[in-house]
Amino acid sequence: MTIGDAAKASGVNAKLIRYYESIGLIPEAGRTASGYRVYSPSDVNVLRFVKRARTLGFSIERIQILVGLWQDRSRSSAEVKRVALDHVAELEAKIAELRAMSDTLTHLAHACHGDERPDCPILRDLEEGGGHCCDEPPP
Amino acid sequence: MTIGDAAKASGVNAKLIRYYESIGLIPEAGRTASGYRVYSPSDVNVLRFVKRARTLGFSIERIQILVGLWQDRSRSSAEVKRVALDHVAELEAKIAELRAMSDTLTHLAHACHGDERPDCPILRDLEEGGGHCCDEPPP
DNA sequence: CTTGACCTTCCAATCATTGGAAGCCTTATC
DNA sequence: GATAAGGCTTCCAATGATTGGAAGGTCAAG
């Protein structure tokens, strides 16, 4: 299999496969006499694993660990679970951050007339740093 | 005020202030005879506006627009509201994406014993692409 | 033999921020 | 007046993951 075949079979872009190799996430592929990279079905499995892990938002760094555990027959599921739960904790933290942003803005937008007049609570919030509420103007 | 003073007063790092200037988000600061940047309290207001907008997750591109509207006395609040709601829509899309990741992983982690044995539903999901559930193994 | 589709490497851009290096300016102290 | 500390200047580079392009080599079919 060439890199293009592996890309189709795994769903990982050929360019990305080369990148993953360059950073050491996947081992260096074998080469034909003319220098083309060669892939086996087992290489494709690794690529699919990586792709699925990326879909779940794992960082490349954590995927390195997961691939290592995956290929380690003496792993404990506790190790895998810890990596996953660490990631879940980061996801939840990010969600909470975005949730707070969205709620604040939704609130401000709700208070904004949205007409042709220039007066706007959104701009007032940005101006004043968000340290107050529309019903409680700063002293 | 020097850039360091403006940084303290606005909460925006001096390095970041230079960056914002370089990309045209804020106008070029005046200079002393020796080349130091000079800032006025009104410049600090702009920096605070930018900082608050970044805290709410607005992209630099949208902040450009917001600053323009802020300083345009003939703006309509509808324009501001539209920019804000576009951003809210992006935030909600991102939240939904992260929520799906987190829920999937939480489910998988729940099904994982987390003990010293190697068997692990998390790794099985990554291996098989998540196209099935623990109770419904693939045919 | 030519065309087109593939492969190779290298370099650059994205987004927002941070870091460092090398060198100049200002202020305080001796 | 010399010197040291600390702030300022510019330029270059790195982050994370991915994508884009350019320039050139290789393979298969027509």
TrEMBL record, chains A, B:
Top-level division of the source organism's lineage: Bacteria
Keyword annotations from UniProtKB, A to Z: Coiled coil, Cytoplasm, DNA-binding, Transcription, Transcription regulation
Database matches in InterPro entries: CueR, DNA-bd_dom_put_sf, MerR-type_HTH_dom, MerR_fam, Tscrpt_reg_MerR_DNA-bd
Classification via PROSITE patterns: HTH_MERR_1, HTH_MERR_2
Transmembrane segments: none
Compartments, as annotated in UniProt: Cytoplasm
Claim: Nucleotidyltransferase is one of the keywords in the record: no
Keyword Isomerase: no
UniProt-listed GO biological process terms: positive regulation of DNA-templated transcription
Gene Ontology MF term list: copper ion binding; DNA binding; DNA-binding transcription factor activity
An annotated GO cellular component: cytoplasm
Coiled-coil blocks: 81-108
Main subcellular location: cytoplasm
Residues in HTH merR-type domain copies: 1-69
Protein name: MerR family copper efflux transcriptional regulator
Protein source organism: Azospirillum brasilense
